[in-house]
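Quick question, first post here. What does this chain look like in 3D?
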Amino acid sequence: MVKDRIEVRVYLPSRDREGRELPLWLKDTIETIAVEEMCKQYGGSTKTTGYGEWINPETKELCKENVNVISSYTTQETYEKGKPELEARLEFIKAYSRQSALLYATIPVGTVTLL
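> Answer (accepted):
Ran it through. Tokens below.
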């Protein structure tokens, strides 16, 4: 049993800020960058898929996209220590994939049981 854990999640887009589908090579590249950073910082990662929707601020149209969520469990202390490097990598992904924003979240989970 490990106490005082948080989950760090990075939401990876499949469309750019204009709502255009990203090329497969670019989706693979940004996913690799995110996974490598999460594994380096926290020792591992898990990928789940989801579906997101957002309003294009220029056209006011509803955009729908598949998203990959890369997550890791860690301590608040480890997260804070590596936060500048994680955010720098995410800023790179944001620029590289032509995003207006890139979401990542930390979620307190408390106690994690490892079997």
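The longest strand covers residues 62-75.
The chain is about 35% helix and 40% strand.
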